[in-house]
Amino acid sequence: MSDQMQWTNALSTRASLEAAINDVVEQATASLTAPADLGFVFISSAFMSEYPRLLPLLAEKLSVPVLIGCSAGGIIGRKKAEETEEIEAESALSLTLAHLPGVEIRPFHILVEDLPDSDSSPKAWIDLMGVPASPAPQFILLSSPFGSEINDLLAGLDFAYPGSVVVGGQASSGFMNGRIGLFCNDQLLREGIIGITLTGNIVLDTIVAQGCRPIGEPLQITKAERNIIIELDEKKPLMVLRDLIGSLSEYDRNLAQDSLFVGLAMDEFRLNLHSGDFLIRNILGVEPNAGVIAIGDRIRVGQRLQFHLRDASASAQDLEILLQKYQSQNTGTCSPVGSLIFTCLGRGKGLYGRPNVDSQLFSRYLHNLPISGFFCDGEIGPVSGRTFLHGYTSVFVICRSRE
């Protein structure tokens, strides 16, 4: 029998860090029949004072060549043979182990000051990452929460590594001004970006569920400056928006007061736009006198957009549509072995009113697939072939062999 990929996850909600580590190591190692090449560890911010103890305690029980992870306000994983759970604002530790034959795994740690200038050549990015552009590597990133530099990194990776998948999330705390932790092999880090490159016999499929539904019709930006929409279909955008809101049901009008977003169409040639074709961005503000709208991204004349609403129903429906699409498009490929989820702190119980909605919906379509991850302060994933930092989003990564 050929050497097969293996992937397993274990979750513990024990309040003692030592007990939690014993739990997850025992469960995870018992499920593998070959040595682990890669590990992911996600620890809840309930253990914030104990972050320095995590890696030394793990090293006493576990030997894995590459181990990365981070802290979070919520942790996702599977307890023994039970269903996947999303543990929010409580003690939790998740350990994922993978045996990946034919895959080269390289960990890295980058600081903001290491990033090349925005006009640098692809070579500067390739030198930074230490892996060639061909064969295309896959990237999993974990970062401290910081500003526009993460967008510079994502644009640089897209530029230098066309055809690569870049996914991940920003570590979170769950507490006001709480400290985060990034874990890379034997190091506890407090800032920058850590991650891995994966090259060889591996494919990372992605599902990026932004959790919105469109209202009205697609509109064309006919005048704009940076992130400010000055004209939509040659009309004042605020007038267009007021007319649209006036045409909505009472429920949607109420929802639009605090859950209204803009979806930017990513493919200018696609006539029929569906879930997954838009990049969802916040509305930052309006200027009533000029009738203009500012949004959370740069825009250009000619681009199409559609207003969107977000609520629990829209989020679940958006994810289900994308899962159905993934299932129908991947029937002939190698079976997936494991998955990761990077989901927003603004989802979970706060959005749905009950736990485990996203993870259970995922498991309904991808049965018995180990899934683990955390609640992020920003999620990283592709839309229409370009990588973005998202909010209020669930990014799923599905791992399978190429051959």
UniProtKB/TrEMBL annotation:
Taxonomy, superkingdom: Bacteria
Key words, A-Z: Cell membrane, Membrane, Transmembrane, Transmembrane helix
Start and end residues of each FIST domain: 35-236
Membrane topology, as annotated: Multi-pass membrane protein
Record InterPro entries: FIST_C, FIST_domain_N, UCP018953
Subcellular location(s) of the protein: Cell membrane
Domain FIST C-domain residues, every copy: 237-383
Protein name according to UniProt: FIST C-terminal domain-containing protein
